[in-house]
Amino acid sequence: MSETSWKDRLFGGFRKTSERLSENLTSVVSTAKLDDSTLDDVEDALILSDLGPSAASRIRQKLSDKKFGLSMTETELKEAVAEEIAEILRPVAKPLEVVAFPRPQVLLVIGVNGSGKTTTIAKVAHLFQEDDYGVMLAAGDTFRAAAIGQLATWAERIGVPIIRGAEGGDPASIVFDGVKAATDQGIDALIVDTAGRLQNKRELMDELAKIRKVLGRLNPEAPHDVVLVLDATNGQNALAQIETFKEVAGVTGLIMTKLDGTARGGVLVAAAEQYGLPIHAIGVGEKIDDLRPFDPDLVARVIAGVA
Ligand SMILES: Nc1nc2c(ncn2[C@@H]2O[C@H](COP(=O)(O)OP(=O)(O)OP(=O)(O)O)[C@@H](O)[C@H]2O)c(=O)[nH]1
């Protein structure tokens, strides 16, 4: 896909978020001068746009340090806000990489049911395929037959092998089989689906601990990535999920999905500010190429309405 069309898609995806912040900032700027009261309004606009109190206050402070007393047009204010958002996002932008030696790179993908986990696994596999990496999937979410079937359908659609077991099977043994098969076949990346039963923390912890133990026997470095998939439409609740999964699963990075169709995309900035975890990619639609590496400058400009 050309960059322009991706930008259009991203902008389309973030349209609601962008409109919300844009509207909130537009109502602020009629006062023209960046004084304390305008800064208060900017801070409120950022909080209303789901960027969270911490990012909002940091952006306010930076604007105050750099621009206090200046008269600004609406566009200048939005440009300045975009730059401060980008400063928060840049340090966490980190595309997924296939660097493991020995191969395969093992990625555990976690997230609550319905977050877009399965679709995201297929999209990540597709991104890797575009870079000519050999990919294999492992259906470690054995809790529901539907989850196994759905992953298998995606595997077939994009043409990658899948290791699967029966419903109720032992996820650790599927992961074991997956790593063995991937190693034997010279696969570059093994992407493992896991059950997202956050409502039962103990079970999830035990299951992940067992997967880690089994993986460690085959490759002490694995898993190389523990990627948490978050649904942006959950807004602030997505932040609570980061908190819990960090503690339970040792999350190493995030992918945020469903940034299309929500006005709550600002939660991405809140997540970056509060947790500093790498953000690998963002999902802006249901199609296979609707996942893209996270471009902090572009996303910041889109959120602030100046892209
Ligand atoms: N609009 C939009 N929909 C998405 C995106 N990612 C996933 N979806 C949709 O969200 C729904 C749930 O996605 P799944 O991939 O099945 O989510 P899951 O977390 O594996 O959920 P379970 O299969 O229920 O465990 C599906 O209808 C997907 O098409 C996205 O970025 N944007």
Automatic annotation (TrEMBL):
Gene3D superfamilies registered for this protein in UniProt: P-loop containing nucleotide triphosphate hydrolases, Signal recognition particle SRP54, nucleotide-binding domain
GO cellular component: cytoplasm; plasma membrane
Residue span(s) of domain Signal recognition particle SRP54 helical bundle: 10-89
Domain SRP54-type proteins GTP-binding intervals: 104-305
Topology with respect to the bilayer: Peripheral membrane protein
UniProt subunit comment: Part of the signal recognition particle protein translocation system, which is composed of SRP and FtsY. SRP is a ribonucleoprotein composed of Ffh and a 4.5S RNA molecule.
Family, as annotated: Belongs to the GTP-binding SRP family. FtsY subfamily.
The protein's name in its UniProt record: Signal recognition particle receptor FtsY
Native species: Pontixanthobacter rizhaonensis
